[in-house]
Amino acid sequence: RPGLALCAGCGGRIQDPFLLRVSPDLEWHVACLKCAECGQPLDETCTCFLRDGKAYCKRDYSRLFAVKCAQCRAAFSSSDLVMRAREHVYHLECFRCAACGRQLLPGDQFCLRERDLLCRAEHGPPHDGSAARGPRSP
Length: 138
Description:
Blueprint: E1 20-23, E2 26-28, E3 48-51, E4 54-57, H1 58-65, E5 82-85, E6 88-91, E7 110-113, E8 116-119, H2 120-123, H3 130-133
Antiparallel strand pairs: 1-2, 3-4, 5-6, 7-8
């Protein structure tokens, strides 16, 4: 209710006849709801994203917080299919051997050295003799 709410932007009481509620517990003066990065006003005509109590426009939220491809550093769209190697995520077309450029497909054996993917032909069998001790896991 106006007069009782505290603005999440400036911390002041909201006594205006209108306020903007972004989530169930965060309310702003209409003039205070701006992108924390670029300052663009965020209102009912602009998509608003929250992170750690701060509001962001769609462009800045995506630029700052979206998961990005470990190879090309571009963000993913919701329709992209991805490949994962440990904590790294790749576009399908970016999931390639760093040495020979061959695209790696599901089921291919590869090695991850720092950020570089290497196909089996480029990294070869393990050097610790583990291949001779027993069957390899798939």
